[in-house]
Amino acid sequence: MVDGWIDVHAHFSPPRTAEMAAQQVERLREAYWQVDEPPRWDAESTLAYMDRTGIRMQLLSNIPMELEALRDSNDFGASVVADHPDRFGLLAALPTDDPSACLAEVGRADQLGADGFAVTSFYKGTYLSDPLLEPVWAELNRRKAVVSAHPDAYRATMGRPDAVFEVAFQTARTFADMLYSGVFRRYPEIRFIVAHCGGALPSIAGRLQLLGTERWVPNPHGITHTEIQEHLRRLYLDTAGTAPNGLAGGLAMTSPDHLVYGSDCGVPCTTDATMNTNLREILRYDGLTGEQIRAIGRNAFGLFPTAAARIATATEARCR
User: Fold this and answer.
1) pLDDT for residue 26
2) Does the pTM of the predicted model rise above 0.90?
3) Chain centroid offset of residue 154 CA
4) Helix or strand or coil: residue 278?
5) CA pair distance 53, 159, nearest whole angstrom
6) Shortest CA distance to 80 belongs to which of 17, 165, 13?
7) Domain edges within the chain
8) pLDDT under 70 in the chain at which residues?
9) Predicted local confidence at residue 189, as pLDDT
């Protein structure tokens, strides 16, 4: 369907024991997921899907809610990349409820050869706008890191899994509060990728610009109208689970060169059919030129130079 695209929003999961798998099914059903089996992930099946679709590389992420599991997951993800360096990249998960553990994992990412980082908007009761994360943002800013932000999709609201709609509002709340908290002002070198085309954030961007700096709105850092526009425009938005309508909202907030392809591959809310439908809708979206649509799958090359270099090295080797 495409040729040589990078997928920045793809998930993986380490191998599980039968007991762990059963526990995961139970947790999903408690959150109103209508499932009987846990999601399963393996590199071979994923590569087969990528080959059928034309995806050159997936940047993998997985963010467990316990520190030991998170560290083990990052180790496993690094081993997958080591086995398939030109097909997969790693976004190292960060435990953003604990700044010390978070900084330790940022440092460990160098040993793992991670291409960037993955965070959850709301992680174990802590939003990304929480002041306790200041040292983490400072270090990621120093590194000029790429940080992919994903909502916590495994809870339930109003009797339905959050993955259906609540994730969009969680994303909007989190990034609006990061805006007012001055995170984007203080740490301009971090490149944030916001999942699902920004969720509901593009829908409220105009309201933020219209009302967000009025006198009756708490604004302790004095964020200006111009900053609201500029900070939102600088965000990168992935296309996972949003086409066609999500693209229009995202493009009203940012520019075509800040759209990056995401499939949401590897999680229980995603199937080959939904990924293919989403991709087809992107390819025939009439709000962009053909060149701009093709660029959606390639804009990530500039964000992830080490991943792009691995692809280039493998391509050169095959051409010899």
Assistant:
1) 84
2) yes
3) 15
4) helix
5) 34
6) 13
7) 5-319
8) none
9) 98
What is the Cα 241 distance to its own chain's centre?
12
What tokens were used for 247? 């693209």
**Which two tokens mark 167?**
């994730």
Report CA 198 to chain centroid distance, whole Å. 10
* Per-residue model confidence (pLDDT) at position 160: 87
What are 92's strand-pairing partners? 117
Sort 179 into a burial class: Cβ within 10 Å, 0-12 / 13-18 / 19+.
Answer: buried
Q: Does domain 5-319 have CATH number 3.90.230.10?
A: no
How many Cβ atoms sit within 10 Å of the Cβ of residue 168?
Answer: 23
Q: Which two tokens stand for residue 160?
A: 């339905």
Residue among 318, 304, 254, 256 nearest 282 (CA): 256
pLDDT (0 to 100) of residue 268: 86
Q: Roughly what angle, to the nearest 10 degrees, separates helices 225-234 and 166-180?
A: 130
CA–CA gap between residue 266 and residue 269 (Å, rounded): 9
Strand order in the sheet with 236-238: 5-11, 55-61, 88-93, 116-120, 146-150, 191-194, 236-238, 259-260
For residue 224, the model assigns a pLDDT of 96
**In sequence order, what are the residues at sequence separation of 6 or more whose Cβ sits closer than 8 angstroms to the Cβ of residue 199?**
151, 167, 168, 169, 170, 171, 172
d(CA 227, CA 110): 33
Q: Which candidate, 238, 266, 286, places its Cα nearest to that of 88?
A: 266
pLDDT, position 38: 77
DSSP string across 110-148: HHHT-SEEEEESEETTEETT-GGGHHHHHHHHHTT-EEE
pLDDT of residue 291: 97
10 Å CB burial of residue 143 (0-12, 13-18, 19+) is middle
